[in-house]
Amino acid sequence: MRLSALLPGLCFHLAMAAALVGGIPAPAGAAGDEPAYGPELQGFDYPWPVSYFSFTSQGEALRMAYMDVKPATAANGKTVVLFHGKNFCAATCQETVATLIEVGYRVVAVDQIGFCKSSKPAHYQFSFQQLAGNTHALLASLGISRATIIGHSVGGMLGMRYALTYPDDLDQLVLVNPIGLEDWKAKGVPWQSIDGWYQQELKTTADSIRDYQRSTYYAGTWDAKYERWVQMLAGLYRGPGHDIVSWNAALVDDMAYTQPVFYEFEKLSVPVLLLIGDKDTTALGKNLAPQAVRAMLGNYPVLAKAAASRFPQARLVEFPDLGHAPQIQAADAFHKALLEGMRTSAAVGPAKPEAPAAR
């Protein structure tokens, strides 16, 4: 085989290896003062101390970053574990953590393997079962045998898989605009190879992140406070870990597309609280689908009601004017509904609060 045929793959693996060695934060990116972070988000500060759970999985030595935040008031003896979305990190849960610790919860906010401050393996079979198993091992190492899981976006899919795998270890499951309330492949979203997802992820920029978040996460609105989360994610893609970050993101895309939890809703034995911003239109691979298929995807008011009717124990709270990230877009209204819903999550049936003012 000619050397020229080997160079693309060789360069890819050399770039990923270089990103994984040393963990040194990158200097400021070429675009002025825009930040560039290391492959494990070195250089981006989290609001509470970050700890690491080291373990071996699939022959890889890995470490999972997490914040273990103690109650700020009298402890209620309960623990909440936060599962972030694909374009989010444990740090993005800052306001939720602050709310929960003020009412006595211990909160563990995890960066899953492949994300944010956790390891980015070059060779790893991503599955929701594997990520659930990793997290279960972390919690066991912390002496946590029972918790409430709050999962947002792809973290909602993971939360459902965790609840199906470890039903006796959960008090309840809270799903915040979870993806996976439909099977995109069954609805007509065409398959794309991991290589295809990878090429798509390589094109990620601050502008593309911002445009997508404005339309989907915040229902067409924008606030200067959102920019921190744009730059957190964009800084990962700008840094020396650009290739390995994109590769891990592609593996996660493939995992979400090929591993639906949609057909197992009736098997969830724990109480489920659904918190849904109705303006959300998130659907994996929507850009790949024919126009006629796109129009049927990501209809969250319909999807959420259908899911709530299938979960054995469910309560649905809808925010009519909010998007995919209601916990950021309207934090006060969201967290009021979260705390009330957690107290009464076993109650069955939909509930609609007054629409909060957009901020």
In short:
The protein has 359 residues and is α/β, with parallel strands linked by helices. The chain has 13 helices and 9 strands.
Description:
This protein is α/β, with parallel strands linked by helices. The protein is 38% helix and 15% strand. The protein has a 9-stranded mixed β-sheet with strand order 1-2-4-3-5-6-7-8-9, with helices on both faces. α2 links the parallel β3 and β4. α6 packs across α9. The radius of gyration is 20 Å and the shape is globular.
Structural descriptors:
single chain; 359 residues; alpha/beta; nine-stranded mixed β-sheet; 9 strands; 38% helix; disordered N terminus
- The number of helical segments is 13
User: Per DSSP, what share of the residues sits in E-state strands of 2 or more residues?
Assistant: 15-25%
The helicity comes to: 25-40%
Shape: globular
Summed over residues and divided by their number, the pLDDT gives a mean of 90
Largest sheet data? 9 strands, mixed
Distance N terminus to C terminus? 59 Å
Task: Provide the succession of SSEs.
Answer: HEEEHEHEHEHHHHHEHHEHHE
Strand order of the largest sheet: 1-2-4-3-5-6-7-8-9
Q: Based on DSSP secondary structure assignment, what is the total number of beta strands? A: 9
Topology:
Elements: H1 3-20, E1 51-57, E2 60-69, E3 79-83, H2 94-101, E4 106-110, H3 128-141, E5 147-152, H4 154-165, E6 170-176, H5 184-187, H6 194-202, H7 206-217, H8 227-238, H9 242-258, E7 272-277, H10 291-294, H11 300-310, E8 314-319, H12 326-329, H13 331-343, E9 349-351
Parallel strand pairs: 3-4, 3-5, 5-6, 6-7, 7-8, 8-9
Antiparallel strand pairs: 1-2, 2-4
